[in-house]
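Researcher: We're reviewing a set of sequences before deciding which ones to prioritize for further study. For each one, I'd like a predicted 3D structure that I can look through quickly. This is precorrin-2 dehydrogenase. If possible, include the structure in token form so it fits the rest of the review sheet.
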Amino acid sequence: MSAVPAYLSGLRLSGRRVVVVGAGRVAARRLGPLLEAGALITVIAPEATGPIIELATSDALTWLPRRYADGDLDGAWYVLVATDDHDCNKRVSVEAERRRIFCVRSDDRHAATAWTPASGTVGDVQLGVLAGGDHTRSRLLRDQLLQQLIG
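Model: Here's the predicted structure for precorrin-2 dehydrogenase, in token form for your review sheet.
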């Protein structure tokens, strides 16, 4: 567990630029909630999975089929980095920190300035669970709490 707890907040991303660096399974899993929130998503990755290509083809998001470059965070409100390249992830998070943009890192929760909660919705209630950056524990707790809400 982190010595200092995270501050749980609901981000209103409608019409705001969100940059996702990486286009694999982890990145794809994050896109649905971001699209539902109305975020203007730019995915940066040399290659992408089928679902991301389909979203780009339908203009639901913008895919830049190349490696991340300095300056790619211009105008971003929020950044998610999910590549298998630790050096790239670090470069993105360093630039995000310098620009004061919150950054989720899939490879190093301790180096991230934000964590994505395990979330769910029952009716008009949105539930988000953080367990010190432990995604597995967060998901388990979320599932238990959702069952309680469903009753």
